Amino acid sequence: MTGVRINPAYLPAPHKVAKALVTAFMTEPRRDGDVWFYESILHSVKIVFLAFLLSSLVGVPLGIICGAVPFFEKLTGPFIEFFRYFPAPVFGALAVAILGISDAPKIAIIIIGTFFQQVPMLCATTRRVDSTLIEAARTLGASSRRIMFKVILPEIAPKMYKDMRILLGWAWTYLIVAEVVGTSSGITWFINQQAKYRNFDNVYAAIIILGIIGLGCDLVLNFLSRDFFAWEGGHVGVTSKIKKEIFAPKDTVFSFRLTPEEKALKEKYHGRF
Q1: What pLDDT score was predicted for residue 177?
Q2: Domain annotation for the chain: domains and CATH numbers
Q3: Quick one: residue 101, left, alpha or beta (phi over 0 = left, psi -120 to 50 = alpha)?
Q4: Cβ atoms within 10 Å of 146's Cβ, excluding its own
């Protein structure tokens, strides 16, 4: 068998890439006014989380309402589904024309890419809530508001958290596309600049760092989920243990007698309603 020799300029040796993981942070920009590598990384991280936060401020409540109120889902569903099939990068030229050459177009592209996926995903998660829980809460006299905050939200919160972790990964994908459009900062700009100067070891180093940042974010969010949702899967995180020691548990049982079935539901979902 014979192989094809690859130009080492385009596929550098692993030890050169490993060295670039360190030297990329210490290499000065070639031109005055250009940013350092670590500044590009921090800038990209800021853009991703800001855009994802803005998208979630509207997308999360809208998705939950659409899943909990069928009429609202029918009202907004066609509009959401129409825009959901548009690739976010097609709005790049419009974003630059309207918002100018700044961070705003990048944020807008990430919001468009995540928001119209976020709403139907969270809507579907909300619709999967066990209807027996809602009926049990109504039997106990809970109002619609109490059902939303004591039954639906605690039930969907762990699943919604997992959905958001997936969507955050999509936001990073859209960042790479967004930073190509009219920008002179960010990690994608750094990759393009290094490719222009044929520093492909730095290119691979930047790609690896992107993966490390994404994996690190996901691991941190997964670790925190044990504290945020201690009732899910029997996991008890460090923060939950501290809260348990400081705050005494509160019994929220209604004053009238419960049936055996309702007692079983209360024991299973203690503290929900």
Answers
A1: 82
A2: 14-268 (1.10.3720.10)
A3: beta
A4: 16
